Every structure is written in C-alpha cells, then in structure tokens.
Amino acid sequence: MDFHTETGRPSLDLIATLGDRGGDGLERLPDTAAATAWFRTVARYPIPEPLSAHDLSVVLGLRNALCRVADTVFAGRVPAAEDIDVVNRYAAIQASPPQLAKDGRTLTSNQGTTLEAALGEIARDAVDLLAGPELEKMKRCASDDCSVLFVDRSRPGKRRWCSMSRCGNQSKKRKYNAKTRELR
Questions:
Q1: What pLDDT does residue 21 have?
Q2: Would you report the helix, strand and coil content of the chain in percent, each value rounded to 5?
Q3: Where in this chain does the record put each Zinc finger CGNR domain (predicted)?
C-alpha cells in the first residue's frame, strides 16, 4: 500500500489514508492488514499485531472525525461538536510517561504499546496542530486530483504539493506534456 508520509504531522498522515475526499474517496486502510502496515511503517507506533476488525473500525472512526475537523477548520468554519468530542476523547488517553532505562542514558517508554495509546498520541497531535501556531502553515495539495493536507515548513512558505515526488512531479510532467503538444 502506498501511504502519504510527507504531511509533516502524524495526524495528517492518518487523515491522508482517506484519499480523494472531494470525490468518492480512496480508502488506503481497506482492511486490518493495511491498517497494521500503516502503524508499522508510517506512524511507527509499536501496536499489538495484528489489528482486529474492531480495531480497524476504531481507527477509521478517529480518522474520519479528524478528516472532518481538519477540513472544516482549514475552510475557516467551526467543526461539528460530535467530531470535536471524538478527537478530545482520544486526546485524553494518556500513554505511559517516558522513563530512563537501566543504563541511565536511554529513554524507554510503554508509549504507543496499545492501539488506544497510539490513537491518543495522534489525536493530541491534531489538537496541537489545529489549536497551535502551525495551523497557519497547513495547506492543501495544489494538485487537482489530490486533497492531502500538509504542514509547509519550507523556509519561504511556498510549498505547493503534498509530495514533490508524487504530485509535484506529476504536475510538472502534465505541464511539460501540454507545452510540448502546443509546440507541435
């Protein structure tokens, strides 16, 4: 499965698992195997594997609420109270605090060892993004066929695409091909 990993925030990475939100929707977490792969490769939270069907529905419930909240806030509107409640409920889930390992130099933690703790981390990231200073840097991909939200941390603040290697190159290729056709 091809997951977006260049959004700049774990919460936006989870939101990006639902593509083409303006159309029919492209589900990048269609089953428990895909969701497990996302947590292992993108989120990098060590969750118990494999995820169950119930676990998948929990993940999708938070993801869908995050999608609606982020899209609504991005559009300058107030999100639905029930979606905010879902995000806040997960954000309240506390993970184990980090601790020093026996060697006195290594940080250890049980953080993210349960699905709930991982979702709590993701929800807290969304709260931090949507209520914090990086909200001003949140943008939507400029590609006509992409709806991914990302944080633009480029120095000039002029990033246009969710990923240069994905949408940026495709856009430049389309532009080049159109120009080539014009010259013929």
A1: 60
A2: 50, 10, 40
A3: 138-179
Is the CB of residue 56 less than 8 Å from the CB of residue 29?
Answer: yes
Q: Which residues of the chain have pLDDT under 70?
A: 1, 21-24, 96, 108-113, 165-166, 168-184
Q: What is the pLDDT of residue 61?
A: 98
CB burial of residue 180 (10 Å; 0-12, 13-18, 19+): exposed
Pairing of strands 149-151, 138-140: antiparallel
Side-chain half-sphere of 181: how many Cα atoms within 13 Å? Answer: 6
The domain ranges of the chain are 10-183
Residue-level pLDDT at 179: 62
Given 1.10.3300.10, 3.30.1780.10, 2.60.120.200, 3.40.50.150, which CATH number is that of 10-183?
A: 1.10.3300.10
14 three-state secondary structure: helix
Output the pLDDT for position 177: 62
What's the pLDDT at 94?
Answer: 81
- Position of tokens 């700049």? 8
- pLDDT value at residue 167: 79
As given in the structure block, the two tokens for residue 56 are: 């998948």
